Amino acid sequence: MVGAAGGVGQTGVTEVYTAASAVAIPTIRTVAADLAARADFDLDSIADLRMAVDDTCTRLVRVAARDATLSCCFAVRFERIEVIAEVDVKEIMDPLPRGSFSWWVLRCLADEVTALVLPGKTGQGGRVCIILVKRALTAGLL
Q1: Which domain holds residue 100?
Q2: pLDDT at residue 139 in the model
């Protein structure tokens, strides 16, 4: 994990790399909540971000290639947190079809949601990336 000791401060980037396993998801969810709390997000926004990160990581772990690494990058800004979660996949597929129930849930929890599928070399799967943005309700007060 990369980050400033003693807290995030006003801006910063924290990266987490782990095996694409459901066992690691609670830790990633806790990192998201901690970063949001340190950035003075209100309790509802912290809970929403925690649930959105949990759902995103769960979805990525389900489609991950065997022995893949799940990476999560948290970019903390004055008024928002951007989360980029990605994993290598064996087969290219849309991890979050628009109009699906999962898409709707993430859209309710995060302010912006983007899903990207990056093809690999011919015959070699690719990479799936889900990007979340959560804004602080108190952004105008910071």
Answers
A1: 12-137
A2: 45
